Amino acid sequence: MNKIDDTSWSRDAIAADLERAIHEHRLPPGTKLGEDDLAEAYGISRTIVRAALLALSHRHLVQLRRNRGAFVAQPTPREAREVFEARSLLEPRTAHSAALRMTEADLALLNANIRDEHAALDAGENGRALLLSGQFHLEVARIADQTTIEAVISELISRSSLIIALYWRRRAALCETQAHHALLDAFARKDGAAAEELMKNHLLDLVASLDLRNVAPPPASLREALQR
Amino acid sequence: MNKIDDTSWSRDAIAADLERAIHEHRLPPGTKLGEDDLAEAYGISRTIVRAALLALSHRHLVQLRRNRGAFVAQPTPREAREVFEARSLLEPRTAHSAALRMTEADLALLNANIRDEHAALDAGENGRALLLSGQFHLEVARIADQTTIEAVISELISRSSLIIALYWRRRAALCETQAHHALLDAFARKDGAAAEELMKNHLLDLVASLDLRNVAPPPASLREALQR
DNA sequence: GGGCGCAAAGTTGTATACAATACTGTCCCG
DNA sequence: CGGGACAGTATTGTATACAACTTTGCGCCC
Predict the structure, then answer these.
(1) In terms of domains, do B131 and B31 share one?
(2) Residues of A in contact with B51 (CB under 8 A)
(3) Is residue B121 in some structural domain?
């Protein structure tokens, strides 16, 4: 209903649209994604919606429960740790490669990204800021020219957004843009080793800002029941 | 037709069955996977088949071409390099963790795996040997108790099987089991550093045994035309 | 005889109808 | 008054019908 139904939405377009909404915390963890609702919203049949939800479930952004429907995923503390563990294996080395391949155009793009993120934060658009923050990391992987790793990181970043929604402790907004700024400096100097180290510490800081005590499943079934 | 249709196949069961067939090189790269054919083979409607094919396409094992159908993926040399690049970022450290957590039961399982692989090679069942070889790597990730990384590695291993089908240069069968045996020794000693180094070199050896010159796309559209 | 165009067949894309399962509220019984 | 069973409602699972597109083969024209 709030979606533009001028053109017909493709499966991938719907999946991307939903992923963005999840990433921006417009669809919080546990939200029920009813097939009829989505079909009506996008002006298409359930067939396409189901395919899109299946795609998102493969990215661990949506949990499918047989005969019960699709819900925005709710990563456990364990899953949260694992996601950042995987990122810490992939992203520092990727940042290293990216630093060595960095061009002026790439630097400008990353710089614009940081600026936009800051603007979003000032405007109170936290969801949009989080999305831009993720895009910064994704852009680094793209610059490293590693399509396969980029795809993996893309999924991990989106999952990280869900993790932040559930386990974020204190608002360390400044920390974020600061870390990205420091990375940008290393990139500008084409200092691979520094970029690698900065990325590694950045990810460690991110995990440190989470509260992953095992009392996690409160939003699990309780919230889900209320959500609908 | 050759499939058992006693019980009804689920989407995931079909996807797993197809993935196994691809992994074992029973379905070589470029093979057309017609929806009607599969639906008849498994005794279900195209609905489920389409969902399974969509799932496999998300694992990069199947390439979907709009209005043309599904084909077993044909990784490019570049993609091949990237897959092993990703594996070399993930698996050595994972082997390290696995070594530290190794139990007697785990060792027995890995040992049995190597034995089975050897038996398969002796029997000339190369596809089965390749599957078992992949399972060895997957088992290591499981032992490391990293579900998320395990899922990523699982996909990369299956893709590696496609890469081997396309770019394998010489049969270095012995090398394979030798490397796994050396890893097993390190695991038995709970020597994480050694396991990490062995895994790293094992993956380098694998890439070295490939012929990734950019004359790759011969099997691309030519073979696809003949295949059907 | 070669090349273009059109028509027919086959395959995939999408929507919809129906079946199966889970949820909700009510009624009856203890 | 509380608990359990049952029926109604709603939602998801699967199959099928139809539409759109691609491919293929034939025929006509140049």
Answers:
(1) no
(2) 50-51, 54
(3) yes
How do residues A49-94 score in pLDDT, each as one tens digit? Answer: 999 999 999 999 999 999 999 999 999 999 999 999 999 999 999 9
Domains of chain B: total: 2
What are the beta bridge partners of residue A71? A32, A63
A33: the nucleotide nearest its CA (via C1') is D11
Tell me which of A94-98, A113-117, A220-224, B171-175 is least confident: A220-224
Domain end among A74, A109, A129? A74
**Chain B residues with beta carbon closer than 8 angstroms to that of A89:** 89-90, 93, 149
Cβ contacts of A43-48, under 8 Å, gap ≥ 24: A43/A3, A43/A5, A43/A8, A43/A9, A44/A8, A44/A9, A44/A14, A48/A9, A48/A10, A48/A11, A48/A14
Assess whether A146 and A33 both reside in one domain: no
Query: Based on the domain organization, do B171 and B65 belong to the same domain?
Result: no
SS3 state at A42: helix
CATH number of the domain where residue B29 is located: 1.10.10.10
Domain range for residue A55? 11-74
Maximum pairwise Cα distance, chain B = 54
pLDDT of residue B78: 94
Residue of A nearest to B59 (CA): A58
Whether residues B123 and B193 fall in one domain = yes
Q: Say whether both B98 and B176 belong to one domain.
A: yes
Res. B64 pLDDT band, cuts 50 70 90: very high
Name the range with the highest mean pLDDT among B117-121, B168-172, B212-216: B117-121
Q: What's the rounded Cα separation, in Å, for the pair A36 and A48?
A: 11
Residue B221 resides in a domain: no
Rounded to an integer, the average pLDDT of A199-223 is 74
Q: Are residues B178 and B136 in the same domain?
A: yes
Are A57 and A21 found together in one domain? yes
**B113 and B201 share one domain:** yes
B50, B58, B152 member nearest A58 (Cβ)? B58
Q: Test B146 with A83 for CB contact under 8 angstroms.
A: no
HSE-up of residue A19 (Cα within 13 Å, Cβ side): 25
Q: Would you place residue B33 in the very low, low, confident or very high pLDDT band (cuts 50, 70, 90)?
A: very high
Nucleotide nearest to B48 (CA to C1'): D14
Short-list B10, B12, B26, CA closest to B126: B26
Looking at residue B218, its pLDDT comes to 46
Is the pLDDT at A5 greater than 90? The verdict is no
